[in-house]
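Propose amino acids for all 149 sites.
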């Protein structure tokens, strides 16, 4: 999905299987029903989107989780797949993992804060110029919170 306009995890397309495979293996190898989940969405038998939910087991912060690699195939955007993934991860976080809040960091300048805002997320801060893209363009990283679940 990175090669078709998505940014999650690989900011500089094109990426090759040799780059993606080890990253995916790391995510899969660290899956544990108490601390992480991998959600996927499929449309017409093809992967349409995915995300990774992780929580830290340390007691001080174990009541919240962080979303990583939230991504949908650009060709299916606007069809509700991203919203469906976000609604399902909210349910899983609350009902199956016992979490009280979710955090995520989104790339600025592409309207993601509007998308997440429609789903109840609140912007809680920004890191100005935190993301440097291949063309030298800097973007803010937007810190977002969903609470209560």
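Proposal:
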């Amino acid at each position: 999905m990175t090669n078709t306009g998505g940014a999650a995890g690989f900011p500089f397309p094109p990426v090759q299987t040799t780059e993606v495979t080890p990253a995916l293996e790391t995510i899969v190898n660290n899956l544990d029903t108490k601390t992480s989940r991998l959600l996927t969405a499929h449309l017409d038998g093809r992967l349409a989107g995915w995300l990774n939910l992780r929580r830290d087991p340390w007691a001080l912060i174990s009541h919240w989780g962080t979303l990583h690699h939230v991504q949908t195939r650009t060709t299916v955007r606007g069809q509700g797949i991203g919203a469906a993934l976000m609604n399902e991860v909210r349910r899983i976080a609350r009902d199956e993992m016992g979490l009280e809040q979710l955090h995520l960091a989104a790339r600025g300048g592409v309207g993601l804060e509007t998308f997440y805002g429609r789903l109840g997320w609140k912007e809680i801060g920004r890191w100005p110029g935190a993301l440097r893209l291949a063309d030298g363009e800097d973007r803010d990283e937007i810190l977002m919170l969903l609470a209560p679940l």
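Residues 81-96 form the longest helix (16 residues). DSSP finds three helices and six strands in the chain.
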